[in-house]
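Appendix B. One record, verbatim.
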Amino acid sequence: MFIAKVTGTVVCTHKDDSLKGIKLLAVQPLKDDLSPKGKTVIAIDTIGQSGHGDIVYLAKSKESSLPLDKDVVASDLGIMGIIDNYYVGGNYNE
């Protein structure tokens, strides 16, 4: 698992049937000090409540779709929850 900040939404004209009804979001992975790490990636919103500016935690691979209770989902990255408070080594985000 790792943390990221939601930076935008993704709108698709066509997408895999397993993703119908699931929101896609652009997220920027973050380091422990909440600075950007790497490139922006696309994640499915398994909780359905994430939005722009939220700090979220994500799971990769097969685990990314476990909360959806579907056999197969075309996803490599899924939002598992929204972080309300974050404190690591002197850096605090509320």
